[in-house]
Predict the 3D structure of the following.
Amino acid sequence: MDVAAHVGALDRDGRLLAATAEGAGLAVSVPSCPGWQVRDLLRHQGYVHRWATRFVAEGLPVAVPRATEAEILAGDPPEAELLSWFRAGHASLVAALTSADPGLTCWTFLPAPSPRAFWARRQAHETAIHRADAELAAGAPVSAFGADFAADGIDELIMGFFGRDSRELSGEQRAGSRKTIAVRASDCGAGGEWLLELTEDGTRAATVRRGGGGADCTLAGPAEGLYLTLWNRAEPAEAGVTVSGDGTVLGAWRGGMRVTWT
């Protein structure tokens, strides 16, 4: 996917998130984010949009101090202004990415063809997953992502986040026996396969790569179902994902993997 496609997805899903949140009500619980209500989802995502906008709009070369999750959820604006505040921050991010110079240089934290491409992709998937959270809170079906977008999100999660984590493992964590998980998107052809080798306790990826291969546990199904499953937004069966092989490997990994703000 290119920058324009990611920005288009970001624009669409941010608008849908706000509309769904408005319809659900701020006090409704978000089942996929235990302990959160819709108001917390809006504060979190609204802050992240503003945080990302600074790097794109100002070309910041290094990471800047950021609020903790607790500070974000306890912060401004007042609830009466929360939806309009969210919408304004989302619109600013879309505008910044749309008008950014393709040669923009700024801080990023995952590999990407360019900083502009990184922020467009990261914020598109950040917003898409939290749009799904809003829909789950509202008791509505999760709107379609599209197979290409979902596969792109799987790739970012595995090759980006879990790849980054694998590079940070200590020698001791790399030692020991290995279990493997294969991920196969049935609607994406040969480009929809990934293989992860896990640490001995099964909770972290020791190595990741694109492509197929034999594995102790295999997840297979449509890219959209895999996307939600891997982000812990759906159980495999309800997402149309088949788990074959040793299911305990998947259980350990899903229990240990985390992508967090702090």
About this structure: Strands lie at 179-185, 193-198, 205-210, 217-221, 242-245. The chain is about 50% helix and 10% strand. The mean pLDDT is 94.
